[in-house]
Amino acid sequence: MKGGVGKFIEETIRSICEWKSIEILELNVRDDHVHAVVNIPPKLSISEVMGILKGKTAIKLFKSYPALKSKPYWGNHFWSRGYCVSTVGLDENKIRRYVKYQEENERLEEDQRQEFGLF
Fold first, then answer.
1. HSE of 37 in the Cβ direction (CA atoms, 13 Å)?
2. pLDDT at residue 110, as a whole number
């Protein structure tokens, strides 16, 4: 993925991410792989995003660079089957506190609504 092919892949990934409302925090196209840090909206699963990114980039790549089809890519597929994903999220302690006290907070909110005659 050197030179023009690498730039093409990067532009395609950026375009797909914009289309799917995926925020790219970091993107690095290397000679033989891609590293990306992205923020995926909750309506999309990670596997769905990977399928879209890998599928759409491969289709566009083979249309724009037909000579790549003659290379021995995994049964004429550009990307390998697997991928590596690691999630980065909220602080674990915050999540534990939220889960632990969620019921108590909801009970307080319900009491306040009844007190003020909102519901």
1. 4
2. 76
Q: 3 — alpha (psi -120 to 50), left (phi > 0) or beta?
A: left
The structural domains of the chain, with segments of one domain joined by +, span 3-87, 89-119
Question: Could you say which of 3.30.70.1290, 1.10.287.1080, 3.40.50.2300, 3.30.70.3270 is the CATH number of the domain covering 3-87?
Answer: 3.30.70.1290
**Rg value, the chain, Cα:** 22
Catalytic residues: 98
Threshold 0.85, pTM exceeds: no
| Model pLDDT, residue 95 | 56
According to the model, what pLDDT value does residue 62 have? 84
